[in-house]
Structures are given as C-alpha cells and as structure tokens.
Write a structure and sequence with these properties.
The protein is an all-alpha fold. The protein is about 75% helix and about 0% strand. About 50% of the residues are buried. The protein starts with a helix and ends in a 6-residue tail after the last helix.
C-alpha cells in the first residue's frame, strides 16, 4: 500500500511517503485507551514520529532509510506550517542519507528535491529531477516533475516538450496537478479544472490518503477558480478543504483573500485571524491590513502592515511573491522589492516574475520599461486578472506622460 500511494500521488509525494513511513507509530498512538488519552491530532502524531525517527537516526547515523523518512516528515510539516526551517532540516537529512547510501536511495533523492523546491532553489531541484527522469524515462510522473520545475523557471519551450511527451489517463493524480497548472498558464482554465477534479475523484477512492493531501487538492481547485474570478466556486472548494482540515492555514488564507476581493471585509478578517493563529503568514497579514482599512479601523490596519514589514524585511533571499505584491500595491519599500525581484530573476524568469518586474517598474514611473516586461508576462496568454489589471494600468500610464 505504501508503494501504491507513493506511485499514485507523486504530485505531493513526500506528504504521503511521510504518512506511510509513520503508520506504525501512528497506530501506536491511536491504540491508546480513549478514556485515558484523547486521540492525537495528525500534527501531534507527526511530531511524535519525528522524535521517533530522529532517535533512530542518532542511534545509527550511518543508515539511509531512517534519515530519508525523517526528511520526508519535515517536508510534510513544513508544507502544513509554512515554517522554512523544516525544509532546511529535510535537506540536511536527505543529503546525509544520500551520502550514507548513494545508490538505490530514491526516497532520499525525492526528499532532497522537495526540500529544494520548498526553498525556491529551482535550478538545483531541476538537476535532480532530470537525473531521476533519465534513470526511468518511461515514468510519466518523473517527466511531469521535470516539466513542473521548467515551468517555474520560465523555461517554457522545455516545459512544453516535457508535458507534450506525457500520455496518461485524465485523473492520474501523479501528473494531473502539473498538467493543470500548465493548462492554466496557457489560458485553458476549463482543462485545468477538469484535470484537478478528475484527480481529486481518483485520490478520494484511495485508502489511507492523509487529510492534508485531500485538503491540498481542494486548495488547488479553489485557486484555479479564484484566478478565474469564479468566487462562488472558489469559496465552495475552500470550504470543502476546510471540512477536511479546519486549521489548514493555506485554505484559511485563501478564503480570506477571496473574501477581501469580494469586499466581504468581516469574512476576510475572520478567516485571516484564524489563519495567522496557525502560521504568521505575511500574505495573510497584508489581507488583514487591507480588510481592517476597508472597515475604517486604520489603527489595526497599520498594526498589521507594520508586522508584515518586520516579518518580510528580515527574510533572506527573494520575497514570496504575494508579499512583494502587497508591498508594491501599497508603495512600500518599492526599491527594496525591485532589487529582490531582479535577484530572483537571475534564475527564475516565469510570467509572474515578469509581472512583478513590470509592476515594480510601473511603481517607479518607468512605464516604457514596464510595458516591455509586461509583454513577457503575457507571452503564454495566461488569463489571470492580476496580469490583465497590471497591463491595463501600465498602458494607462503610457497614455499620460511618455516616460522612457
């Protein structure tokens, strides 16, 4: 069963691998008498499993399997909490596992790739993905993994080759999320929707699928609908995901942002407050700042904006794009954000990187340069209202003062 889950759900492979690896420990917790001890939550079980495998790794630091499992658990926890330290820990354990066992250690290689992706080190992750694909060229999930990273890096010609070489059933959950994102980038929202819903239908038939995995599919479906501005469908998907995992900060944050754009200020505040109670996500702080400002509570709005500044400005490396967008929208730290964007674009030149570059140039009054960057942001025909609105604002700027 563990092998079957890992095969079918490669899109979020390590969450499931971690769950499968921890099943014996989870069973021990669940078997405790209910009258004496309440059933542990998934997070509590996972934390116990991290302690368990960490102890095993300390007793045998020369092994490979326990270190790989420990890394997978950290990847899973990092996805749920947003804590970057888990990705760093996962990378450390995966590298040690591969050092101890260089051959036939696919799980550690996958953990390493996932940890690098979580840290936005896409160029390094691509090399691992290419090596895995070349070792098993007929595996569609490995080809899709390469295409996904190429897509993130803006290597669209290569991504097209990777995705065009994949021929799988519509609902294959290992491949569908990547194909759906590719379809969405090219403006084919209906196909993206079909792929994700078919994959979710498949996943729901599989036994022992972690709740986090099901919630993630609802999040992806909701995000596709949100970007298409089908707010009712997006909110329905987010609610379905929260029905599976009520404290998933990603779903709570997405629901808050959706409410904000619909001018449902109190709803945005409720979901946003619940989200930051789980994880202090800067994007959600921005949503709360805007929602409170819209209600007239300028003091709370300013408070959340200040907290966002503190959290974001001390971040090393590139900023998360949602944070960058908030800062640019509010004319905050424009020069710093622009510098961060250009640093990231040394390796990652996808359409959203060009969109942020264009928007930062527009905010600096450099609309002629912004227009050129925006043309690259629109190169695939992506039907994202954010891109369309930015392009319109830049065109409007050009009709005023002709700046070069």
């Amino acid at each position: 069963m563990r092998h079957q889950l890992r095969h079918h759900l490669t899109a979020t492979l390590l969450t499931i691998a971690a769950g499968a690896a921890c099943r014996p420990q989870a069973a021990q917790v669940a078997q405790q008498p209910a009258a004496a001890t309440p059933l542990a939550s998934d997070a509590e079980i996972r934390d116990k499993d991290i302690e368990y495998f960490a102890a095993r790794a300390r007793r045998d630091p020369t092994g490979g399997s326990d270190l790989a499992r420990l890394g997978a658990l950290h990847v899973a926890r990092g996805r749920e909490t947003g804590d970057p330290r888990d990705a760093e820990q996962a990378e450390k354990y995966a590298r040690q596992s591969l050092k101890n066992r260089p051959e036939r250690n696919g799980q550690a290689a996958q953990v390493l790739q996932a940890s690098l992706l979580a840290q936005h080190r896409f160029d390094e992750a691509l090399q691992l993905a290419l090596r895995a694909r070349d070792d098993d060229p007929q595996n569609p999930s490995l080809r899709a993994s390469v295409g996904e990273i190429e897509m993130e890096l803006g290597m669209y010609d290569s991504a097209r080759v990777s995705f065009d070489s994949i021929h799988v059933a519509l609902g294959d959950p290992a491949v569908a999320p990547r194909l759906a994102r590719w379809a969405e980038l090219q403006g084919d929202t209906p196909r993206a929707r079909r792929l994700l819903r078919a994959a979710l239908a498949t996943v729901r038939t599989l036994p022992e699928v972690p709740r986090e995995q099901l919630a993630w599919y609802w999040l992806r479906i909701g995000d596709v609908e949100f970007r298409a501005r089908n707010f009712a469908a997006a909110d329905s998907a987010y609610r379905s995901g929260l029905g599976v995992r009520p404290d998933d900060y990603r779903l709570l944050s997405a629901a808050a942002h959706s409410a904000l754009l619909q001018q449902k200020w109190q709803r945005a505040i409720v979901f946003g407050e619940r989200a930051i109670a789980m994880t202090l996500d800067p994007a959600t702080l921005g949503t709360l700042s805007d929602a409170y400002a819209a209600t007239g509570d300028t003091a709370r709005a300013a408070e959340y904006a200040r907290v966002l500044d503190v959290v974001v400005l001390k971040q090393p490396g590139a900023y998360h794009r949602a944070w960058s967008l908030f800062l640019l929208d509010h004319d905050r730290h424009v020069a710093i954000v622009a510098r961060k964007i250009r640093e990231e674009m040394k390796t990652r030149k996808d359409v959203y990187a060009y969109d942020l570059l264009a928007w930062s140039l527009h905010k600096q009054g450099r609309d002629r340069e912004a227009e050129r960057a925006m043309a690259l942001a629109l190169q695939l025909g992506t039907k994202d209202p954010q891109l369309i609105q930015h392009a319109a604002a830049i065109r409007s700027g050009l009709t005023g003062v002709g700046n070069e």
